[in-house]
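Run log // design_07
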């Protein structure tokens, strides 16, 4: 069986073709700069034309969809109702869901007879208990405005769980982990018997760890202070929190390799702050998990490649006897696996 995986962003369209059940990659294509000023590719339709895909060979198409809200707890076969619901969720993911929808709709135009599947970044975290996903805000803000923790990077953590379970020679359903996805975006997930019980990212991917350019956790009053006392607009505050904070904010850059090479105070401080935040979460997750932790897992560009950062994180008495794995995450393979399970059932 041949499974296509599509990751449609606002300015890029990624396509990967895999053969199943082997999971081998047959083809990989990418179009970037969609809709940008000097680009020849004006929209996703043109992007798909540029990819020149041979649809005659494809059995199913899997789409990465960032936000499934409270509506989608698992992977689904796409129909009109699913499309309508993903559209309804746009206010929760204004940057991502519209681009994901573009990808779905344009694929449907080109390949109306091939089944399409949506795999949600949030779905793995739908196992969170209410006390884990609620914010201590007025309850109506949850009921009416859907403000709650959703968590992201779910496809990655789910993949890491399955691969770690193999290494542990255990069933994923019996595996408990602390799973770290450390890239430009960073998240840490507490997994108990195969289920996500807590995740550092929240209502949006901004919450939690100190990331490449995102602040992660901070006192919410700071946001109001920036607006009220520093007279910054909502857009300016948004840019500061998402694009000018984290490692970039503290030391001016976000590539761990360069930061580690530098020896100045800011660079050292940025690393110390990032690792300290990770330690806080690991400590908290040990308290939350009701089972023994089988392993700590490192993934993402930093987690996979930086021995120095991994060593700093592991340099704590509580982690001394814990197994640690470095696993290269593969979200596309996980999406394709999900598609394979769905079409096998049909
Ligand atoms: P994204 O979240 O955008 O997918 P990645 O998972 O690719 O990001 O991670 C990107 C980050 O990984 C880079 O900013 C850099 O800090 C780090 N990184 C990549 N390669 C290496 C390496 N060989 N050694 C140390 N850090 C690395």
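design_07 sequence
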């Amino acid at each position: 069986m041949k499974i296509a995986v599509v990751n449609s962003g606002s300015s890029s369209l990624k396509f990967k073709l895999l053969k199943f059940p082997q999971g081998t990659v047959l083809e990989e294509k990418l179009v970037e700069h969609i809709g940008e000023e000097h680009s020849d590719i004006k929209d996703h339709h043109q992007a798909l034309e540029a990819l020149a895909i041979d649809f005659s060979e494809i059995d199913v198409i899997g789409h990465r969809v960032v936000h499934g809200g409270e509506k989608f707890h698992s992977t689904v076969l796409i129909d009109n109702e699913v499309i309508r619901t993903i559209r309804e969720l746009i206010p929760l993911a204004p940057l991502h869901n519209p681009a994901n929808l573009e990808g779905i709709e344009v694929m449907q135009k080109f390949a109306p007879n091939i089944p399409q599947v949506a795999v949600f970044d949030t779905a793995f975290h739908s196992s969170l208990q209410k006390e884990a996903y609620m914010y201590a805000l007025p309850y109506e803000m949850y009921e009416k405005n859907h403000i709650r923790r959703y968590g992201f990077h779910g496809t990655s953590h789910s993949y890491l769980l399955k691969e770690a379970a193999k290494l542990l020679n255990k069933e994923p359903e019996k595996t408990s982990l602390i799973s770290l996805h450390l890239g430009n975006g960073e998240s840490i997930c507490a997994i108990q018997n195969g289920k996500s019980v807590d995740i550092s990212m929240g209502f949006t991917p901004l919450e939690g760890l100190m990331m490449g350019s995102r602040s992660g956790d901070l006192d919410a009053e700071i946001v109001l202070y920036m607006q009220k006392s520093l007279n910054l607009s909502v857009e300016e505050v948004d840019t500061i929190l998402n694009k000018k904070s984290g490692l970039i904010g503290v030391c001016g850059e976000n590539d761990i390799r360069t930061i580690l090479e530098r020896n100045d105070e800011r660079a050292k401080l940025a690393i110390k702050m990032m690792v300290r935040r990770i330690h806080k979460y690991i400590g908290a997750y040990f308290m939350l998990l009701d089972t023994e932790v089988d392993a700590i897992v490192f993934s993402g560009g930093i987690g996979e490649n930086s021995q120095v950062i991994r060593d700093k994180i592991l340099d704590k008495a509580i982690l001394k006897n814990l197994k640690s794995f470095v696993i290269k995450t593969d979200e596309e393979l996980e999406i394709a696996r999900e598609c394979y399970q769905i079409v096998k059932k049909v």
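Residues 183-185, 212, 254-257, 300-302, 305-306 surround adenosine-5'-diphosphate (CB under 6 Å).
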